[in-house]
Amino acid sequence: MRTPLVIGNWKMHGTSASNHQLLEQLLPLLKPDTQVAIAVCPPYPYLSQVKAMIGGNLALGAQNLNMQEKGAHTGEVSGPMLKDTGCRYVLVGHSERREIYGESDLIIAEKFAVAVASELIPVLCVGETLKQRKTGQSIEVVSSQIKSVIQRNGIQSFANAVIAYEPVWAIGTGETATPAQAQEVHQKIRELIGEYDISIAETLPLLYGGSVNASNATSLFNQPDVDGGLVGGASLNAESFAAICQAAS
Ligand code: PEP
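^ thats the input. predicted complex w/ phosphoenolpyruvate below
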């Protein structure tokens, strides 16, 4: 039995005032008794502010971490620092990190290792581009992104991890994978993990991300291998995000 999980990725948005307002609106809308784990990932400067306001089944996550645990890395933030700040989750390998900041599978595998060593739950983001989907490479691309992390860290590193399937063409575009498209890839991911360890495959939460909103969440989350969502734009609106969390319950 997998607990549904919904994670809001605030990306590089917000101010102290707008975060406060968003959480003040959101918190009363989240039903305390729902069997859904929820997290929000604000930008680094606001982690402590958000941590001070949340609790219960709403946890804190970060959007990125450095591949080193400490050292002379001006401008970077480490896994242990995120843990110390109260984070439970950390996104690893979001497509914006891969595409805009050139993060390779190798770097992402190193970051995943640091997240695990820091006792954070890594949320490994994988997904194909539109060109790759159109040329029938979706499964191959996603499998290879996951395998590079398994090769570096071993399958046991997924015992307390999350994978988010986020087709790049669906992120921030308003275009969503159909429930059938999401299910097809999620099923293949679970099968792939199962080739290494069947019990990890059965318990590993697989999130869908890519223009999830209050209207499409239920049909996506109803798919047997979709255990919740990684939500960007819609997580900045309290009513939409609460509705998405409700859809996962
Ligand atoms: C994301 O940032 O991971 C994401 C899925 O964004 P959006 O929901 O806006 O497509």
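The mean pLDDT is 97.
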